[in-house]
Specification:
Order of helices and strands of chain B: HHEHHEHHHH
Radius of gyration of chain A: 24 Å
Largest interface: A-B, 41 and 32 residues
Helix content of chain A: over 70%
CATH superfamily of the domain at 36-280 in chain A: Cytochrome Bc1 Complex, Chain C
Number of strands of chain A: 2
Oligomer: heterodimer
Number of domains of chain B: 2
Chain lengths: ~375, ~280
């Protein structure tokens, strides 16, 4: 008892504050739970994608809130307020450009994270639910990109939305309702902008925060999958804790991504086109770069006509997403080594080449149109 | 271990170790309105990259040798290997760039003539989108193979340059756990709080420099940007003045109308009373 009192007296002010909070919140337990997560096989750079995604999302929220201080979501003022942010607000051009490139970085990171989980076979039992929630998060990130694109209310924003909503309209059963709900009228106008804004700043962030929490909870429940090579004894021998090595790798990866986004904001800052009008003029409507491969696919002759457009825009992507959702239940073999899963490796490679070829083709096609 | 594999194992972590540090410097240059890809900015970046690369190469090469080959190299591997690799790269990289460029241009040319011939003799109605993708796949495959082969050759060179360091290195004794402990002791600093404090301090200083250098507001950094939004002049409406002006305009209009009707009446010999009535009706309207 006497020793305890002596120990408390020897604590400095900071330690006393920590002690006070710990007694009431259980700080040390939380800290131990978060930092002492065992990582079978040791830390790896490949495991940093999830942490980086969370980091980008937090910064998107911060920059998004700062932009909302100035942005006015009305068709009369959206364009002018965005121009105001770019030209008048202190560091406004940087915040907007960071937010713009941050959204692209999120898509890239989601893609990298999903690829890593797929190649590592980390979607297999008992991690099926983590994979499914991850797919839903992928959809939300795409939704962020689609709804945020309209907000500056320039020609690019307007026509990308027109094309996107038209594609959505082709979905059986719910397509018509979704298109009418999003547009709120026969052509994109105030109702469209209001709805996209609310979905972008209220609905999707809430959904993403909830699902990301569930994703992390399920991940902690099942534990990390670890490397796909090596005997259980070898993997166990190399087991590391989240702190300090994985944390260090995560911090370096976050800093690198942050610096890349900042550099892109400097090199290619957001540049608005003319204010949105229902007349495209010389402008060739085009979606955001990560939808370009799909856009180029729809230009192929085979996907011409009503049925072809439905096939290319809805049926094939829909079937692919359904396949991804069913993947953990179709691929039930315990083998996780990607080099012993030739179908998975070839399939992934073919999809990567397909996306790359069609994205570059869309860029060449753009030059051809100009 | 083959030269190519050794080269790849050393190069990959070296690139990612040095890249974030170079990126920090490049970002500071951008914030100071200096392009790191041309002129003074490029020279400064290259200058900073030299010590960063020497350090990163030394650290990563030593890691690979200890972790994968179970040997501890002689001190100074970073500087020695970097010097040799820099000379080798100065010769090989321009050759690689030239080879890839020539192969790509040749492939593009051959593919274009093949497509033209295909359109002329077999399928004249080949759509644009299909043509673009087909051509891209054909010349892109050739260019990619050329690029991969050249890069593997370059990495082979790095592995070949690193082999003497492997031969002269001291073998590591002890069990696997002993070796892991040895490597852990090498890379984990004795005073971790000091390292963390120094790291945070450097970060804070860099943040201050970044925000200090960056322009607070206009001009927009994009040189070709057109500012299309123009501020409208705010006009203050004075109701009495506006009413007076409107009355004057109406009075003038009335006089003009009356004059026109008078002229018309003279020509057609119509009564003036009718014209007055019409003017009154118009005023009411």
């Amino acid at each position: 008892m006497k020793e305890d009192i002596q120990a408390v007296n020897q604590q400095n002010a900071f330690e006393k504050v920590v002690e006070f909070v710990d007694e009431r919140v259980g700080l040390k337990t939380i800290q131990a739970k978060m930092l002492n997560e065992p990582i079978p096989g040791g830390s790896r750079w490949a495991y940093a994608f999830g942490s980086v995604l969370l980091f980008i999302f937090i910064l998107q929220v911060v920059t998004g809130i700062l932009l909302m201080f100035y942005y006015v979501p009305s068709t009369d003022h959206a364009y002018a307020s965005t121009q105001y942010i770019i030209h008048e607000v202190d560091y406004g051009w940087f915040l907007l450009s960071y937010h713009f490139w941050g959204s692209s970085a999120m898509v890239v990171m989601v893609f990298a994270h999903m690829s890593q989980v797929f190649l590592w076979g980390a979607y297999k039992k008992p991690r099926e639910l983590i994979w499914l929630v991850g797919l839903a998060l992928f959809g939300i990130v795409m939704g962020f990109g689609f709804t945020g694109y309209l907000l500056p209310w320039d020609q690019r924003a307007y026509w990308a939305t027109v094309v996107g909503v038209e594609i959505m309209d082709k979905t059986p059963l719910v397509g018509d309702f979704l298109a009418r709900f999003l547009k709120g009228g026969p052509t994109p106008g105030q109702m469209t902008l209001s709805r996209f804004f609310v979905i972008h700043v209220m609905v999707l962030p809430a959904a993403l925060a909830g699902l990301a929490g569930l994703h992390i909870f399920l991940f902690r429940k099942a534990g990390p999958a670890g490397p796909f090579r090596g005997t259980p004894e070898e993997i166990k021998a190399k087991t590391d804790y989240f702190f300090p090595r994985q944390i260090w790798k995560d911090i370096v990866a976050m800093a690198t991504v942050f610096l890349i986004i900042c550099s892109l904001a400097f090199i290619e800052p957001v540049v608005l086109l003319e204010q949105a009008t229902p007349d495209p003029g010389d402008y060739h409507p085009e979606p955001e770069w990560y939808f370009l491969f799909l856009f180029q696919l729809l230009r192929l002759k085979i996907f011409g006509g009503q049925f072809g457009q439905f096939l290319g825009a809805i049926a094939i992507p829909g079937a692919f997403m359904a396949f991804l959702a069913a993947l953990p239940f179709l691929d039930t073999k315990p083998e996780r080594n990607i080099f012993k899963r030739p179908v998975a490796l070839i399939g992934w490679t073919v999809i990567m080449i397909f996306i790359l070829v069609f994205t570059v083709s869309a860029i060449i096609n753009r030059e051809f149109l100009h | 271990m083959s030269n190519t594999k050794l080269g790849l194992l050393v190069f990959w972590p070296t690139f990612w170790t040095g890249f974030p540090i170079k990126l920090v410097f490049a970002l500071l240059l951008l914030a100071a309105h200096m392009h790191p890809w041309e002129g003074t900015g490029l020279y400064l970046l290259l200058l900073v990259s030299i010590p960063v690369d020497i350090w990163a190469l030394g650290l990563c090469a030593r890691t690979v040798l200890i972790d994968r080959l179970k040997v501890d190299p002689q001190p100074g591997i970073g500087l020695n290997l970097w010097g040799r690799w820099a000379v080798f790269s100065a010769v090989v990289l321009p050759v690689i760039a030239m080879v890839v460029s020539v192969v790509t241009e040749a492939a593009k040319s051959v593919v274009a003539s093949m497509t033209e011939s295909f359109k002329e003799h077999i399928f004249p109605a080949l759509p644009v989108a299909e043509q673009i993708s087909l051509e891209l796949v054909m010349w892109g495959s050739v260019a990619s193979v050329a690029l991969i082969v050249c890069i593997l050759g370059w990495l082979y060179g790095l592995g070949w340059l690193a082999q003497p360091f492997v031969k002269n290195a001291k073998p590591l004794d002890g069990t696997r756990d002993d070796q892991a402990d040895f490597w852990d002791r090498l890379r984990i600093p004795a005073d971790q709080p000091l390292l963390l404090t120094a790291f945070t301090g450097v970060g804070v200083v860099l943040v201050f420099i970044f925000w200090g250098l960056m322009p607070a507001t206009t001009p927009h950094p994009h040189a070709e940007y057109e500012y299309t939004f123009e501020k409208k002049e705010v006009k203050i409406v004075e109701p009495k003045k506006v009413l007076k002006e409107t009355e004057q305009v109406l009075a003038k209009a009335e006089l003009v109308v009356k004059k026109l009707q008078d002229e018309k009446g003279e020509n057609q010999e119509k009564p003036a009373a009718k014209i007055e009535t019409t003017t009154e009706e118009k005023q009411k309207k």
